[in-house]
Batch of 2 targets.
Target 1
Amino acid sequence: MAHRIVDKEKLSENVYRMEIEAKYVAEAREPGQFVLIAYDNDRSERIPLTIADVDLDKGTITVIFQAVGKSTIEFASLNVGDSFDAVAGPLGNPTDIEKYGKVVCVGGGIGNAPLYPIVKALKQAGNEVISILGARNKELLILEEQFKEISDEIITVTDDGSYGRKALVTEPLGELCSKGEIDLCVAIGPAIMMKFCCQTTKKYDIPTIVSLNSIMVDGTGMCGGCRVEVGGETKFTCVDGPEFDGHKVDFDQLIKRLGSYKKYEQQAAAEHNCKLEGKL
Ligand SMILES: Cc1cc2nc3c(=O)[nH]c(=O)nc-3n(C[C@H](O)[C@H](O)[C@H](O)COP(=O)(O)OP(=O)(O)OC[C@H]3O[C@@H](n4cnc5c(N)ncnc54)[C@H](O)[C@@H]3O)c2cc1C
Ligand code: FES
């Protein structure tokens, strides 16, 4: 079954929002879940992307992705009217949405995309939500307006100070935690960012949920490609996650595994970029 792209927008350098027809996925999806998407069933790998939003009337899901390698660069070259061969899901366990009280949600870079539906659901469940959004610079900061609409307070930071406060996300996070009013933290972004957010919240004993972006192959718990160590046990991100207790995750191992295929990924992206030159 083909899944047509009905809308496409470039949000920032290399970041795209796409609305894709996937009626049954949209109907079944809960916040925190993801899909595996393939452009061409015969020759493409299947890429995990979080379902950032759904439109039940239109039968569509929205994904927001960064073109970082071969497959995501290929996705970015597609346009409205083109179709994906497969949109499998919804996969993974939904976020545990409850009324916790005061929740701080931290997004880094493309991590703002998977964070968005979680913040929306936490707010709807009656929580007070403070969103901290971070990016390397102003151009890379995405979804600020959308977060403003669903957060009680928003703090923006950039590494280079080109927008908002010049800081890493852990700075305002630490300040909020030290006031002793935070009941839960949700942190989604690069593994290194999540690692330091967890170190910050651990000092104050604040429960922290992270969503892991492990490398995935089959997405069914069979191949072991997405394995992570959590609390000394091996877990599979696709079926046991993608969200885990951040204080128990072995981030150093995750970071090492994310870098395992770097050489081959760079080669594949370079060859692919040459073929697509001028199309993006
Ligand atoms: C459950 C889940 C949800 C995700 N949701 C989103 C999302 O909503 N939006 C989004 O942009 N990305 C998301 N990702 C990450 C996305 O799947 C990867 O960026 C994608 O697989 C890269 O494929 P590629 O072929 O384009 O690049 P590759 O050639 O595979 O990699 C290119 C570069 O990206 C890095 N990379 C590869 N895989 C990952 C990964 N899983 N996470 C982080 N860096 C990676 C590599 O180190 C390499 O430097 C998610 C991952 C998971 C597991
Ligand atoms: S992707 Fe294969 S076990 Fe999770």
Target 2
Amino acid sequence: MANETKKAPRKRAAKGKSTPPDTTSDAKKPNGQLPTEPPKGTPDDADFRFYTKGGHTHESLGLSEDDLVGMYRSMMLQRRFEERAAQMYGRQKISGFLHLYIGQEAVSTGTVQALQPADPIITAYRDHGLGLARGMTANECMAELFGKIDGSSRGKGGSMHFFDVEHHFYGGHGIVGGQIPVAVGLGFAAKYKETGNVAVGFFGDGAINQGAFHEAANLASLYDIPVLLCCENNAYGMGTSVERSTAQPELYKKAYAYDMTGAVVNGMDVFEVYYAMSELAKQAREQNRPALVDIRTYRYRGHSMSDPQKYRTKEEMESKKNEDPIIRLKSYIVDQGFSDNEALDGIDEEVKQVVLESVEFAENSPFPPVETMYEDVYVQDDYPFIV
Ligand SMILES: Cc1ncc(C[n+]2csc(CCOP(=O)(O)OP(=O)(O)O)c2C)c(N)n1
């Protein structure tokens, strides 16, 4: 598309805080008038944002040495926690499903570092990394995996249902794509209550094909909702690759259909994630506008513990491991002279110990009593109300 036809971002919303959207009137919209102009053509890359160039330094990003070490510690905790969880699953200490996040830690860590603590975050069932990055303790997370009463959801949710209201982490959802409209609802609430927060909803590349995504994206744009719809594009939905399941595999392009910003982010680089999410959250906050963020990442483990991973080659896996986000950050910290390998390995040992203690904590926590099974369940008193 030539520059003169390049679409300017829509300025539907007033800057800054706004009044709740008027959903009862369509007075602002021309009723029954379809465009008579010929279409301006399909979007090209100039219409999107690419956070893929790399080359950021902590200075250019305004990150301190402490921030870097904190990010390293967070990523290391997520990885060691899940390695141990996999082992506990093998020992049948954990039942049901277990979806590991290993490989995607730069996404959770970069995002949390970029957001304000009260910005709500919601995700699907691959939720351990985000929960830990947001401040959940290894103890409450491991106890939840074990189905014990000291777990974050009192042991009744398990792996797919971490939840921590205090840290503005709203789950943990097992129905593919089901959390995306809830993410828009969290953004709607932020706008309605004028909190100045931005909601961030994560989902997988498989989920983008669900109707829930399209309905939610439409409403988010129509109502000017401050929400980042973040696709953790790890290339596969269970064993099916994006190319085989998605008519437009360049997922960011779907933003164009909903008149919102579309961005691509290198999710293996924690600096790039931090940079992208800082900019996009600022825009959403200031303009009350949604964005679709296509975060290119990779999971080293199978879809869940029972996945034999026959759909990808060892070579593909190995090449991705060369991009490991933790090794990348560690090298940066050492190269800059902020710390050395020994000290960073010490952090690794420290988090391993935290995780080991969380296993002991989970072992010692009791199962929830059977009679509490129906507590904390949403029940409508007058149900069934349709006779
Ligand atoms: C509505 C619905 N359909 C099917 C499933 C079964 N299922 C669980 S995960 C999954 C694949 C989703 O893949 P993706 O969204 O790419 O997320 P990823 O696991 O890669 O993080 C499917 C089909 C489900 N949980 N919910």
